[in-house]
């Protein structure tokens, strides 16, 4: 039995004592929800086609991929696909930036704002939606959420310019960290990006699901062993869509260890421009590798450099088709490729590879004595962000009054 399954098999009192009533099960079950997330998107194929076509035809058009925290990182895994499949500029933006600087994002454009939200109850998510409507008369909204009863979903359903896609309620993680919610929102976003050719995506979905199950089965032993070593910081590296994988993975390890393990992230090329300084003898390096040989050449050269300079405590390589040439630069190698299938496009594999970051956060949290379902002993972080007030920017500009926005 692999370590993840072993934790799931514990009885309820044991899980409660360890603080793992939810997180291991949510990591384990997420892959089984991917097909449902795709079905829920394609159920709205006609409306989505009309929506994307209408935005494409507008002048000064733009797609925003918006969210708060992990929900923002969903966008970083998707923006390449959207740019390739639609003749529209695409930008990832945090809802926090939209709230504080709306005039920078909604002036003189006709955007489609795609909002990703686990709960849809964070103040920034609801506030950004309301502020967007204030600043743009012709804005359209697509809301992808794991909580059909959340504030954002309830508000958007009453707006004729909005479409809400609810994912299975099981994607609405009950643990602190977003795991199943993240991968399923990425999957739903991938399906949206393929709305003009859904058959092409659904043909690849079984291979994606098989790769996800393979990671859960084969990787947890390696990841647990790594998590129980004494590294003190970690750096996650990814190119293209896997830049989003790296960002999300760094957050998973950092938040599930309540900040005790400080983490960084970057692309393989950009890390040389200063950030490489954080890689010392106590640093775990996690490399999410591309299957594209052109991209992998750059990644290989950095891994050689790290090894030659004797940087890092341990290096984990994750990807498809990791041959001897590249595997020798990793201390641990996790190859997700199926022998009978060609490699999946790199743009589709973030939901698979990100589970390494989730598992690393889970096992390191337990190793350090934290409770993964609620690792913050001081209550600094919460499942849904608290303490944020969102103010009406129009009223402040006109009257100098701080008036809270109520969704």
TrEMBL record:
Q: Where is the SIS domain?
A: 51-201, 219-375
Asked if the Swiss-Prot or TrEMBL record annotates the protein with the keyword Transmembrane helix, the reply is no
**InterPro entries, per database record:** SIS_dom, SIS_dom_sf
Taxonomic source organism: Atribacter laminatus
Quote the EC number.
Answer: 5.3.1.-
- Name of the protein: Tagatose-6-phosphate ketose/aldose isomerase
UniProt xrefs under Pfam families: SIS
Q: Any idea which GO molecular function terms this record carries? A: carbohydrate derivative binding; isomerase activity
Q: Which gene encodes it?
A: agaS_1
Which PROSITE patterns does the entry mention? Answer: SIS (PS51464)
User: Which keywords does this Swiss-Prot/TrEMBL entry list?
Assistant: Isomerase
- Write out the GO biological process terms: carbohydrate derivative metabolic process
